[in-house]
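Deviations from the work plan: none for this task. Representative record:
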Amino acid sequence: MIFLLLLSFIIPFFIGFFIINGFWFRQESILSGFALKFILSIGTGVGVSSLVFFMSLFLFTPSRNMVIVFDFVLLLLSLVFYVFSIKLRRRMPCSEIQIDTVYSNTTIMKLVSLLLCLVIGLFMVAFSLRSIIKDPHGYIDAVGFFNLMARVLFRGGEDWVNFYTLIKWNGLGLSKLEYMDMVFPQLLHHSYPLLLPGFIARTWYYISEDTTTVPIIITLMFTFLTIGLLYTSLSILRGKSQGLLATLLIVGSPIYFQCGINQVADVPISFYYLSTIILFALNDRIFEKNKSLIVLAGFTAGLSAWTKNEGLMFVLMIFVASAIVYIPVKGLKFYIKKLLPFTIGLLPVILVIIYFKIYLVETSYVFAHGSGSIIDKLIDPSRFLNVCQVFLKNLFIYNTGAIFVLFVYYILLGSNVVIKQNVVISTFLIVFILYITGLFTTYLISPLDPGSMITASLKRLVTHLWPSVIFIFFLIVNSPEESDSTSEQERLVCC
Amino acid sequence: MNYRVRKKLGVCLLIIFSFFAHGYWISCSTSVKTTIESVGKIKRADHEVVFNEFEKGSSHKRIVLDDNAKKSGIINKAISLIVNSLRKTDEVTLFEKNIEPLKEFLIGVDIVGFVSDLKSLTYFYYVQYSIAPIVLANDTERDLVVGCFHDYSKAENIAQRERLLLVKNFGNGLFLFRSF
């Protein structure tokens, strides 16, 4: 069993590894930025495996052998792609990432590193204990959807689709939406995509058992991989100090760990958002003008949409924000040219999602009462004020007021980055604003009580963006070394 | 302010914030609160014992010795409380064990109804999770209906009201009904 469990994680890793390295720009050595590529490979591999497992369910009767054979075929295809891409790029010059900071190993940074090692180790133990002993099945949302759907895909065998069709065609559907009186309360999560349940079910097929160990391993993996991703990417782009401080901030976010323990998709989606932004930022920093990293960014953004419905909003916001940044300055043609590789990467995942949304699931409960009701809610000023009040209160107290800490830190260390001139930073700052506005609008038009919904779910939804916000923040703010150099310059000017 | 000072202040702010955030989170955690409350109860109960002995006229020296012994007893009890809470099987696993015999009656069934005396949907989600891939409908208009009752005595009345016939009582508030 342990061998098969290991195999079920190793194969997706190599699939991801070949895809990531196939799209990566040519470097002197395959080992440059290895940690970053390693982490991205795991996330990508999990996404691809889940997606292909879902498609294979329509083609064959699921069984252990079928799943393993399918994975090996996928592994072989990704290997062929990798070999071809290596051959294609053989004549291209090597590219390296422009790094504009240096790392000085000061006492305070040593202290931060030591603290981080201790805290991360402690959290790993606490997280595992809590997950295994206290909540092996996860939070109620995991029991009500993510782990439930994994069971449906695994236990349902070839009849798994009945679960969707029975709910979709039986009874009153979404027309009667009084939460407690709904005939199918499952409809609240019915339209959620299947990245997490798909990967869990696929792994269960490997070991022929639906044990709680698998979702625990997967959530543990995503929680600590996101931390690793933040550290490695910022270390490459802005120096080790920024990486360490960003990691300190994410490790100091209990809500983030709680979401991980809950076994819901909030942490995996944050991983894919962060991957997308990192790939955009990396593409901006390499000398070589090839767009393969943007294709990858499109793919990871697509995987975020395959993780949760909010991912679709994220994808849409990238298109809107890029339009705001590019079209007024460089025109529509440039915008299309710039986003074409992103769309190419996005397309395979989006096609699967479209099929899933059209043929399997009901529309989201948010739109259940029709356009008339939505417009009524949008133009109701008292509802707007009420929702606004609760929303802003919950937003500002997110993670014990972390936003104010970021503000004070920014004032203390300052920034040398001109946001307007940096396309990636300005685009994603707009994405964040639009995303938060999108969440607000969803609560505003929701047929359920928005007040209790905001209190119950906003902190989890903001957690989707939290690692990305930290990443962009530490791209903007000066690193401790930069501040030193600025003060040195100031001192020289004074002299 | 000097840049070096500002830099140190900034890094210290992040370190302190991390501890503060976790401290605040722990103080809000229900499991921590419950443990602290339980330890508090043990402490109060033991103090009452000491106080009773004092009233009986024991010497001061004996009271001090007894109090130290009680303190170590409190620590042991607190540790055993934490260990027991960690050993305790979680709610969903227990629920799944209870529902296991019911599954034999649902072989070949696609959809079953659900009835409960509680308004909350927690039990609904637990039953749905346990019987997956069978679909659970939150009504009594199906051939078979699963009943999940917190107050067992209400089961009969609710079954009569919903026109349901008892197929089997599985104990622990779990019933299987058939509609008329």
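DSSP finds six helices and five strands in chain B.
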